[in-house]
Specification:
The protein is of the alpha+beta class. It folds into two domains: about 130 residues, Jelly Rolls (Sandwich); about 90 residues, Arc Repressor Mutant, subunit A, CATH 1.10.10.10. The chain is built from eight helices and twelve strands. It has a four-stranded antiparallel sheet. Strands 2-7-4-5 form a four-stranded antiparallel sheet. A four-stranded antiparallel sheet has the order 9-10-12-11. A hairpin with a 4-residue loop joins strand 11 and strand 12. The protein is elongated and about 60 Å long.
Length: about 230
């Protein structure tokens, strides 16, 4: 019978650990769209590996405002911080689509990391990358105004548009309140800035995407804003 761990992308190239002895200690579960996977202050310390589907991770401020930290999809995982330090959850994770996840107890995750140099190295690099990304977003929130934070988020969410060299697209087109939750502002502010970009001919809304017609303009504006900040 095929080892179930071969379905976990993170471990596909790990050969220095015997996964069979860990298989039965993990739970494989499906979640429906909109179902809560992990809630705030959850007492568990499991690690969740996404086999299929997509989830959204967000935090809530004491005032009740929700801020989206990330969306994750097949091949990624979350929950490793609680598995490492034992501190209760500080975020909510909700399934954006139907999803299947492997739920790995903290003890199993730690046993694998301690037993496998390859897994340990990959985990350290992944955590380093997440810290760098969070530092980058913190810097944006600290030094950029709303419209430049929106430019940066659109560039981060977008991908090259097939058949249209030089253009990028965000698919599906993001809801304005979602963009607002990602950059820390109100929905009305996002709507106003996107309307301005549309009037300038920089972005265009289609049925299936928000198209960035002139991504180089957004990139130039971001670079100029950062240069101006460095002079202050």
């Amino acid at each position: 019978m095929q080892n179930l761990f071969t379905r976990i992308a993170f471990f596909k190239d790990v050969s220095d650990v015997d996964f069979e002895k860990f298989e039965r200690r993990c739970l494989w579960r499906r979640f429906e769209e909109g179902e809560t996977v992990v809630d705030y202050e959850d007492e568990s310390s499991d690690v969740y590996f996404i086999i299929s589907g997509e989830v959204r991770i967000l935090i809530r401020t004491p005032a009740g405002k929700e801020i989206i930290l990330a969306e994750m999809r097949s091949g990624q995982f979350f929950g490793e911080l609680s598995a490492i330090d034992g501190v209760k959850r500080s975020a909510n994770v909700t399934a954006l689509t139907r999803a299947e996840l492997c739920i790995m107890p903290a003890a199993v995750f730690r046993d694998i990391i301690f037993a496998s140099r390859t897994s340990c190295d990959k985990t350290l690099k992944l955590l380093s990358g997440r810290v760098r990304e969070l530092n980058h977003r913190l810097a944006e929130l600290s030094v950029l105004d709303l419209k430049h934070r929106l430019y940066s988020e659109l560039m981060r969410l977008s991908h090259p548009r097939t058949g249209h060299p030089g253009e990028r697209a965000v698919t599906p087109p993001p809801y304005h309140h979602i963009l607002a939750a990602r950059i820390g502002c109100r929905r009305e502010q996002v709507t106003r800035e996107l309307s301005s970009l549309t009037a300038e001919g920089i972005v265009e809304k289609t049925r299936g995407a928000l198209v960035i017609l002139k991504p180089q303009v957004l990139q130039t504006r971001l670079q100029e804003a950062l240069r101006e900040e460095s002079r202050v």
